[in-house]
Amino acid sequence: MKHSSSSLSYHDARRSFLAIIALRALFFTVLLFGLDRVVDFGSNPYLLSTATFLGTLMGSWIAFQRVRLFATLILTGTLYLLVRGGFEIFFQLQSQTPQEVIFPFAQLLHFNLAFGLFVLAYLSAWIFWRSYHAVTLEIVCFASFLLYLFSGHRHFRFSDAPKIIGELAWLFGTTHLTILILLGATLALLLIAYLTIGTLPWKPRADKYGKYLKSHTQYPRLLGGGAIVLTFLLLVGGISRQIFFQYHQSALSLGSNGVGLSESSEEAIGKSPLGFHSALGSNSQPAGLVRLDGDYQENPFSPMLYLREGALSDFNGHEMVEAGKVYDDDISHSSLNTTFTRTEDMDLLERIPLVQSIYLLSEHKTAFGLDYPVSISRLKNPAPAKFKAAYKVYSLAPTYSREELSIYGSGDPRWSNEKRNHYLKTHPDERYELLARQITQGMTSPADQAFALADYLSQTSIYTLTPNHDIDPKEDPVAPFLFGDHRGYCVHFAHATTYMLRALGIPARIATGYMTDLSQAKDGHILLRMSDRHAWAEAYISEKGWVPFDTQPEQVESHADTEVDLKLLEELMGLVGPGEELFDEDLLEGETGIEEPTPYELPGKELILPILFILLVLLLCTKLYLRFGWLLPSAHRRNIIRRYRALTSCLADLGHYRSEGETREQFIHRLQPPISFDNSLLIQALNRTNYQQKLNSPSSKELEQWYTSDMQAIHALPIWKRAIAFLNPASCFAFLSGRLS
Amino acid sequence: MISRISLLLLLCMPLITVAQPIDPLDPFASPAPFDLSEEDKNKSAEELVSDAEFLLIEERPLDARSKLLLALEKDPQSLEAHTMLAAYYLVHVGHYKLALKHVKQALHLFTQEKGKPPYSEMLTKQQHAHMLHLLSQTRLNLDNYEGALAALDEYASYDYYQTWYPGSRAWILMKLGKLDEAIGTARLGLLAGAEPGRTLNILGILLSMSGQRQASLQVFQKAIAHEYSLGERLGQPATPLNNSGEVYREIFEEDKAEKSWLKATSLPDGCEHVLPSLNLAILMIEQTKYQAASRAIDSFESCVAQFPLRNGEEHRALVHLARGRIALHTGFIDEAIEHFESARKRQQWFGKIGTSEGDLRVAVLTSLAQALRRKNNQEGFLHSLSTYRSFIRLRNRLYRAVKAHWLFRRATQILSEDLNAIEDVYVRNTDSMLEYPTLGQTLAYLPTATLENRIALERKDDRRGNASLYYDIYLADSYLAHGQESKALKLYNAIIRQARDPYDAALKLHASLQLMKNLSIQSKQYTTLAQSVFMQNRAALFSYGLKLPVNLSKPSETSPTELSDTAFFVDNSSQHEFIVSLSKTTNEYSLLFSSRSSIVPSLTVKGENFTDVLNKFTLEVFRQKIH
Fold first, then answer.
1. Distance (Å) from the alpha carbon of A628 to chain B's nearest alpha carbon
2. A-to-B residue pairs, Cβ atoms closer than 8 angstroms
3. Please, what are the domains in chain B?
4. Predicted complex ipTM
5. Is the pTM of this model over 0.90?
């Protein structure tokens, strides 16, 4: 890049300068409000934003002055010490009430924070204008901060902070991964945009003497710059798209404890939705809402509830896979758009009817429900924007106790030999049988044996989402867990239990679906997350049906559990509960405590009116100063400038401004007509004072005459024009932007 | 209690409903095969409401709720269904917004049907009174105290009266800060035959808040006696027992407090409420009896697990706080941090338990900040296995230090601005969940002069002699933090001498540790204090960044120098109670920790890598095991 030290045009530089200050202040304000949601500053964000804005303004202004940074810092430090000293005096005062004692300290906390931000904004603004590399440095810092902020989501751990990812995913009805990628791409683009703006040719830069300098070449290379930006855009878009498509499926599977979604019957046969290597993420993405329409106090697994979606009962020599309707006929295998009914199995004892309404929040291919569904019927979707589908399940839910299972045998006498053999197909590795026999030594009841196996695994296993067993894809993926380090997750536990049960001659399979904790439910409503997806072993106990024998490891290396978002649960309950049509409009009008307090309330009417009044007074004062400032005592030269300013402010209010490159004389001549100046004597006086010897400067009397003469031209205008011009604030803004020169 | 009253009143209500036919063209209204509600769909709204009443009596709330919602589907104007659902959401679920919607709709329908009050018919009056009661309770739970009082004012304006009224009114007045008026209401109510148990309990709380502690204890005794007289099924003595325990703790009668809470937690109505267990746990922590504290929380959790359908949101944060504190003091800092972070995420409704969200926030923030500092102290004694890990550890320590500073700052800010100019500086304030022995570390963020002034004001009104030591330690912590060591040390020494055993054990422990920070490690006082602290709590020295003086058995020139950089001060120039023995074979290092008088069990750690062995050894020695 070629650097040039030639000055920018004054107006270009000033415009860029003001625009960049405004952008920086806006950026800081948005950042502050965002950060306040994360760290809870405890101080009014408007106060903090004002401090930041003032810091930016001050730093920018100082950068273009011939003042050394350390001098201003010393001045600021002194100011702080003075204020702090004032507080110290308050601290020493003996007060009569606790409120009086604590009040100064509370104010000091706000002051400290606001002052800290002021200094930060001040320094960053100063560096931004003075250093060519400031933009790069800022981008590096900001990008590092973003990486740190979002690093909680690495390895698909979407349940971790920052929570905003989950909130946005819920708001837009999409997945965490989509939001993460979209957010990343947007931020990347914003950084590119900032880099572009920060290095534009018309961005002014100050040197140590406070001069305006150009950053780049004289002429912007729009074509080249545009091409680079476009390339960046394509690159960011392309990479984001690629990441999304590559990891979307993995995210769904890995983020759901290694238990993927079951497919409909025919497509699923011979396949398994389970993954062995690792379940990297714990995904709090909402999967569905279950509403129990009746009490289920007899739940034998209380407080846990198993919702079955699919079953893997076929052993393919490597792992358990789905066998389809022919074998696992208790599973509905029904898609979400069909109605399912079956004849109730009267041979299954100790069951109660239980109705559940299920509202799906993420894509599912098959319906799931509690234990043994007898019918599944479609429900009207109460909120199509949120729910993907809704259905009602009528299940026969078990009510047996652990103790009473011991007296029953295993298997169903109605099964054919083929079906029995299907559920007893064992793993060729003899170690499974040896270990199973060792654990269940002396036990005869199938249920006792199954419980013993589950208890053994619960006591010896270490729950981890990243077992990372290093094995060949053709090898048994369960052996390194059971005969190795005992580190694994539900997929390993379920397989190990099933293999061992079959080795003992007990019909067994793996069930997949959701396991949820009822203690986190509210009013019988349960929020299912992807992290609730689960696989568990089941054994067929005569007259009871398929009974879960699940492992609950005592040693936990990584936590898959996350707390249920109760606010979300309540929101969903509102969607599926009685509709608003049941209630009159404005029923809750005037009630307090209903809505969460809005974090940032804009100043109310009581504040807005005084602020407007103050602004009006300020404008009026400015105007009076511009018009009549020459009446104030001042040096002769200053007086001439003020009289000239009074003249140009009148012209500005009438809509006449001096153009860029135009001399004062040309400006005055341009105005004739409508405003006819005789000789523009005031301009002559100003020029003489500015550019000629002090001796040629007019006397006070002459000046007075010339001023009166020039103002005559304005006074010649109709009175209504002059009255409107006086009410016009244009001259004040022109003065602030330096256009009254 | 509220549920019983609601139920009784609901049963008295007439059933006025109009059935609506099912739309035969609605594709979703057609009954699915085997649909359980087939039978219900042919019932009228009135019949469904009637079913729901019986289901509620049979304690099948979800079945009842489903029937009521179906009744509303049939007749959206069903007054009874709206009223019962309001009571259901208020009492069984705790979904107050929905409860408010239903009760307001019910009131609206009621006025439409019966005209504007006052009413002349007894049954109509009862219905109206019941709805106003529900409205008041719902608003109270939504922290809308003015609204709740307005509902009660309306209730009283029609000359309605039930025995719960004075108690409810007094409670709301207390929430509005009108303490004297609340006491007057409760007293008057008792004279007029108000429900004794509830009203006495509220009066006791009010008297305690106004500083009349002996009077409040007498009132609680009456409340307890009354509840016992109602028998095991109807009586609920756990609440006044818990409250009397809080007053006993406040007046430093810890034995009586402990007895009250133990009794409360052993009762059926006490085990499912978190406060007695939590109070007991805090008391045990103050006495450094961590195992007993842990047991109290375990008992509560095993009890509450019996009610799986009720969401335990209101107690989760408190349980996390208690568990975190136990972990913090026993040296399991990571576990403590996890608990505190979980507690931070929890939101609570405090309308019912007499405390505010700010109290909990401050308690969690201060505990979390302490945990972060202690984690840094602990890591300062551990060796890194590689340069990369050293860098990561340094980064983490820096992060924790900044975060701890910020959390302390926020805690003092909330204490100052939201909690009535640090009202919790009053030692053992019953509303507060702060840990009083270590509160000084938070208060040290105030300028010393401010703290001195604030404590002077508190001392002026506080005549409890035992509280003085706590005020002293706050000042001492502040002096130490602001560089006035000599003043601080004088106070710490006095506190150690005067602290009561075992009631102020945690206070004494903290004072000893703070004092040790300013003593020479080679001084005799340091050694004596270190041994005494270690005997009391094995994790304390390590967590405060202090070393334990030990003898190294069989030292040799080849002894690794890393040992002296850990939490042990190896000093063979004098005889110490504790001994560290180091042995080395070809492939293995072995470290043994033992005591001369066998007051602590010996432990050995072995391994191939000396740094690794040393870290594990340090962690093992300085952990207070409670299970």
1. 48
2. 179
3. 1-162 (1.25.40.10), 547-621 (3.30.160)
4. 0.81
5. no
